[in-house]
Amino acid sequence: MFCSGFGGYGGMFLAMGFRMLIFIALIVLAFKLFKNYTNKSNDAMKILNEKFAGGEITQEEYLKRKSVLSQKN
Length: 73
Fold this sequence. Notes:
By secondary structure, the protein is an all-alpha fold. It has a domain of 49 residues. The longest helix is centred in the middle third of the chain and has 44 residues. The protein is rod-shaped. The model has no long low-confidence stretch (mean pLDDT 82).
């Protein structure tokens, strides 16, 4: 009497599974975006350290740029 093409309550289980897949996809996307953001800020600091170590910038410039990068985090 209440049975549909999915055998009664099958549609609810499919909808729940679909919602779980969307939820998991959103979590994975959030982790990837966070990872990319942290890598970019670490790369900028790495480049700054290399320039200072190579003598391309003075200590004053290094400290000023380092404080700017630290404020962005």
